[in-house]
Amino acid sequence: MFQDPVLRAKFAGKPEHVVNYFFLLAEDIRSIMAQLGFRTFQEMIGRTDRLRFSPSYLIGKARLLDFEPVLHNALELRPGVNIRAGTVAQDFGLDERLVMD
Fold it and tell me: I need a labelling partner for 60 at 20 to 30 A (CA). Which of 8, 15, 27, 49 fits?
């Protein structure tokens, strides 16, 4: 795999720094999820009851925003619809195609 030299010149860091950043980010996300009582992202889908809107009082217009429609539970809007989805196994035969190439 080749990197575009023009784009590569814009990045002064090392690839290891990016990897380290994402490991730290994942650790922070796991910590926040644990505080909220979630173990997986799948458990968080549709859980608008865990969201809170706290407008910044430093910005006057923020107090005028109404997020109630956005924070409304999707199950109440469309009962019986699977909002959590599910992992459906997909096999496109990519492994076989790569081996043949």
Answer: 49
Cα distance between residue 18 and residue 79, in whole Å: 42
96: alpha, beta or left, given left = phi > 0 and alpha = psi -120 to 50?
A: alpha
The pair of three-digit structure tokens given for residue 64, joined into one six-digit string: 């005028």
DSSP H helix total and E strand total for the chain: 6, 0
- Phi and psi (nearest 5°) for 21? -60, -45
What pLDDT is attached to residue 63? 76
Rounded-to-integer distance, Cα 4 and Cα 8, Å:
6
pLDDT tens digits, 38-57? 999 888 887 888 887 777 76
Q: What is the pTM of this model?
A: 0.55
